Structure formats: structure tokens, C-alpha cells
Amino acid sequence: MDIYNFIIQLAAGFISTLAFSFLFNAPKKSILVCSVIGAAGWVAYYYIKMISGIIIASFSGAIIIGVLASSASKQLRMPATIFIYTGIIPLVPGYGMYHTMRSLVTKSYHLAAKIGIDTILQAGAIAVGILIASMFSSSIRRVKIQRKR
């Protein structure tokens, strides 16, 4: 792992999430945390993609974003959706969506189907990753509450 590449990827995830935090009108006190969460998810996605593939990388990045968002929501007393919506922006498969539509317009239906299915799988992996992280966080919270009683 090259440190220069790591810094570039970290900055890319941070800046893209920062920009979308402003576009989504996230509360001002959450913007820095949103950006850090997005950067962490993007770096995880980027390096896991090299090892296993884009679907597993999307799933893993989404789990990291979901867990960090749940933790941040508890610490800052804000809804987790603020951190999740902005954090997943770097993971959204825009490239795949663009090339699917481009292939449809150029009548390359076989290629459009292939890219489209991959894009849907990637989006599904992100959704399932967020879902699992949310379920995991809520079950941990429930166990902590029961222990206090």
C-alpha cells in the first residue's frame, strides 16, 4: 500500500462527502464527521476492491459507513441518516449507471445488461451493508440497555 495513494484516496472520499454534505444541507456540526465517515468508507471500498471485487468492496464500505454513522448519531445526538446519506455518496455506482444508459443509447443491449446487472448488484450490496450495520448497532444498543437494568 503506497502512502501517497492512500492520502489521495482519503482526500477524495473526504472532499466528495464534504461537498455533498453542503448540498444536502447537513447540520453544520455534523459536516466534518460526515466527511470523515465518507472518507473511511471510500478508503475501505478502494482497498477491498483490489482484493475481492467491487460487490464485496461496496458491501464492506457500506458496513463501515453504517457502523460509524450509528456511533456518530449516538455521540452527536442526531439521526444516523444524516451520516449515512452523505457517507455513501462516494460508493454510489454512478459510473455503472452512466455506462448502462450509454450502452442502451448506442443499442449495445448485451453490454447494457451486463453493466446494469453489475450496477444493481453493487447498489444492492450497499443497501444490505447499511441494513446489516444498522441491525448490528441497534442490537448492541439493546443489549447495553438490558445490562443496565
From TrEMBL:
Cite a single GO BP annotation: succinate transport
In its UniProt entry, what is this protein called?
Answer: Threonine/Serine exporter ThrE domain-containing protein
Query: What's one GO-annotated cellular component?
Result: plasma membrane
Where is the protein found, in the record's own terms? Cell membrane
Please report the record's description of how this protein sits within the membrane: Multi-pass membrane protein
Span-the-membrane segments of this chain are 6-24, 31-48, 54-70, 82-100, 120-140
Q: Which UniProt keywords apply?
A: Cell inner membrane, Cell membrane, Membrane, Transmembrane, Transmembrane helix
Concerning its family, UniProt says:
Belongs to the ThrE exporter (TC 2.A.79) family.
Residue stretches making up the Threonine/Serine exporter ThrE domain:
10-135
